[in-house]
Structures are given as structure tokens and as C-alpha cells.
Prior knowledge:
By secondary structure, this protein is mainly alpha-helical. The chain has one domain. It contains 7 helices and 2 strands; from the N terminus they run αααααβααβ. The longest helix has 29 residues. It is globular.
Amino acid sequence: MAFKGTKLSVGELIARAKAAPDPDWGAVYGHSLRHVAADEAASAAELVEQGAPLNDCWRFGILQTLDDYNSAVRRGGTELGAQVFEKEPQRTGSEEIDAAFAALAEHLARRDGWVVPAWALDPTRRTEHWYAAQFPSAYFYAEADRESPSAFRTRGIFISANSLNRA
Length: 167
């Protein structure tokens, strides 16, 4: 069987994709939440209990929560996104990760204009000094010291400006 359609160049395919309207993700996936910060904290707690490195907990707890938030915002706006943080995440057994959950909630709330949840303002959700990095280096330390968002810095967590960028 031979292809009988129209062959398009990569440039033409890209142009068509750019010209097409963005999908209504809410209509595609609905406006309910699939995962919230409390779910990801429970997963992080399991990792902590198993002795996983904190960077794994960062990736599978904090960054996964960020992905959950971004997905919720795409589907239902910041009002739905804020619901990701409504239920207080359980303590994970790691003060660094507990502080990071609070920092992420505060950072996103202040950035996107919703009320910071009360649990995120708990002063016990902090650590002394932790660099959340997969492969820390002198360059990363200097960058994180300079660029860490205030919600993270005030809790003793240092990240680069790019640490929360997601594909």
C-alpha cells in the first residue's frame, strides 16, 4: 500500500502547528485534580524512609508537585492550581523536603496571585542550609546563593533561577 497523502516539509508542519489554536486542556482532561502536594509528599516520605538521596525526593516530590500545579493551571487556571496545595502535605522525615514543599507553595502563590496556604507559613518548615541540586558544583552554589527565590531562601533552601523551569 503506497502513501497517497500530501507530503509536508518539517517547516510546513511547524507552521501548521503554530497556526493551530491551543487545545482546551480543560475539555480534554477535565477540571479535577489527579495529584496534589499531599500525594507527592507521601511519595517523598516513602523515599526518605527507604534512604533515597534528597535529590531524588526533590525530583519525585517537589518537581512532580510543580508539574502537577502547571498541569492544573493549564486546565483550569490558577484557581485550580492553588487547590494542589490546599491539603497540608504530611511531614516526610526530611526537614529539607518539608521546607521545600512550603517554599514551593509560597513561591507559586506569590508569583501567580493566590493566597499562600497557612500550613506553608509554618516556621518549622525550614532547614539550616540546603542546596537542591542533582550535580552541585562551585558554580551552582554561587548561582543559587545569588538567584534563589525568597520563598526558598528564607527557609534555608538554595536553588538556581532555572531549578524550577520545566519542559
